[in-house]
Specification:
Immunoglobulin-like; about 20% helix; four-stranded antiparallel sheet; 14 helices
Length: about 650
Amino acid sequence: MSRKFLSLLVCTTVLLISGLAIADGGSPSPADDPRLIEFRFNPVRRAQVALWIEREGTTPTFRTLMLTEAVARRGIGNRPGASQMNSGFRWPYGRREGVLPVWANRRAASGALTFPRVIFRDRTSEGAASQAPAGHFPPTAGYRDNPDEYFCLSFRQALTNEERRREALDAVSCASTFNSDKGRYITTDDVNASYSEPQQTGPTTGTMWPLSGSSLYPPRRDVDCPASNCGNHPDVANYASDALGAMPEIDMVSRATLADHEQSILFTVPQEWPDGDYVAFLEVNVEGDYTDHEVGGEHPIPDYPTPQLPAASWDSWAVSTGYPYRGQPSVVYAIPFSLDHSGTFTARAPRYMGSIDGHDDASLHEIQAGDIVDDPVMAPGSGADRLRADTTGTRFRVRVQRTEVFGECTTDDDCDAPATCINLDCVASFCSGNQPPDAMQNLDVEPVTDEKHSHQWGHLSFSVPYEELGIQRYEARVSTSPITDEASFIAAVPANAAAIDSVELVIPTGGNTGDTVAVDFGGLMPETRYYVGIRAIDVCNEPGPIATATLETTAIHFTTVSPCFVATAAYGSPLAAQIGALRRFRDRHLMNNAPGRALVSAYYAVGPSMANAIREHDSLRVATRVVLTPIVKFLAWLDAPDDSEQ
């Protein structure tokens, strides 16, 4: 007889002895009647997602259940830079207040605390994307731009063709170290002085939008270096603690960007929540979601070009780099459901939409015909199809599970599965007496054997623990601080897959007890000690014990391929289009003759030291680009008839 069955039998016996009279139609006590909600959906790649529950009435409820990492940890909704500023691969600046605006506004409207607003450290307004502060070089008060472990500034030109815009997101442009301005909090004096951001409000009009002192979004929480050591403004050291102060559950609900496959999110309903009617909301957004596809045959969804107005409010980097990311706004799926009984509730299409700028979204805006693309065939992954439909056409599913009684019985044959006959009643007993998974065994973590990635990827393996009802998922987290208990585990970062994109690590849950599971994970920095924690979570949403291990990443094993040292330092990436023109000139016109090869060899001898000097000084990088720009244009023109390598 299994321990699960014994536990269930004991629980049932206690239930009957205590006189809770299931046969008389009474409900089990909250402690013995677990209520579990499962949410299922399949997001597209790079979707930002918020999942929450609301209840109106005498006991109003607002509970965030999940928030993807770019918002929850990277702070893309509350950081330096104007909200209309262009975007790109790991773009560092520009407040994306339209990323999940319905969640953000409704959370604030429920009475939750907002967050201090982050602005550039030393600017007159928020329209500059360059590192050199407008009118202040070097920066005042001893603060300085300093290395950013995640964000970088793309040097790709702003593009107008839709296909190339989307390709810009996939171009890795973080090859060289990027020094970013981590910003500071806006002050009362700033607000009183109408500190503003530029906004282009029409093809020929623009305005300056005064900023308030608070934000609906948390600031970034991934800056570990104290302000005293890094030269950040002192406010930066408070970003993480202030975010936790305003939203204490933020670590618990943070998830890495979701992988493009069906998600199953479990939520155990708190005992204090009364039965009754609730609404589950799922907001989904993807930047750059523009399309020429017509909606209902009426009109194409517009996109918004790179802002240029008000005049002189945007610097040259803001208008010449990145891509205009604003397309279709966020969509919100909403499913009313009841906790009174078990049941499944579904939605086939989104019901509400956010706004592009994220303002005034506490009131739900119903989607009207022509507002949002919904055509999985002609516009896959766009608009409503940011959640993939299953074979029944369902995109969002909510399943409530609880212990219930389904009539009288004599034997189990009298009851429809999954109910069984207990004391002459058909009882569907859900997770009563459940035991969590056993402790995980044989956990091992080490850098991957591939030297090209051993500085940023790790290899994790373990043995499948015992769990009678089944493992729903594994939760793995990574930290540079020791993981010693539940609190330090939750404070660690959800593990990412071993990939260029920051996307969740998916650990397969198949296999029998004792089988070995092995996966690679990423998002690591070179020559750093990491603490890795992992635990199993069963189908009743019960977590098992946390197992921990450590690894130290290696140094970067550089591979030099056809270097253009100085140009790479100046433009920030060996993939920049300008460097391609220089590289083609070298390969086609210098390397095929002796004098040219001698010139290249001489450059290789002095190039690295020159590049190091340029890379460390913003003014030298700007000056080098000024010198190289006419040369690059001439070389691009020279090779234009035979430009097949681009």
